[in-house]
Amino acid sequence: MPLNEYIDETMHILKNSPDATEIIVERAKQMRLAESYGEFEAFFKSFNEGFIGDMETE
Question: What is the pLDDT of residues 1-58, one digit of tens each?
C-alpha cells in the first residue's frame, strides 16, 4: 500500500472515529483478523507465496 494512501485512510478513520481503540486500514483487516476467523495459516501461506512470487519477478 502506498504510504500516502495509508496516511489518508488512517487520518480519515481517526477523524471519523475519534474514540477508536485500534486503527486498521481496509487493506490490513484480512491480515489483522485472520487468526480470529481461523484463517491464519491459509492467509499467510497465500500472502507469503505472493510475496515470494513478486520478488522473483523483479
Answer: 899 999 999 999 999 999 999 999 999 998 888 888 898 898 889 888 887 766 666 6
Cα 16 to Cα 1, 5, 13, 20, 22: the distances in Å are 21, 16, 5, 9, 13
Q: In 10 A of CB 28, how many CB atoms? A: 13
Backbone angles phi, psi at 6, to 5 degrees: -60, -45
Length of the chain: 58
Question: With the C-alpha atoms ordered 43, 49, 52, 54, is the resulting torsion angle positive or negative?
Answer: negative
d(CA 34, CA 30): 6
- 3-state SS of 8-39? HHHHHHHHHCCCCCCCCCHHHHHHHHCCCCCC
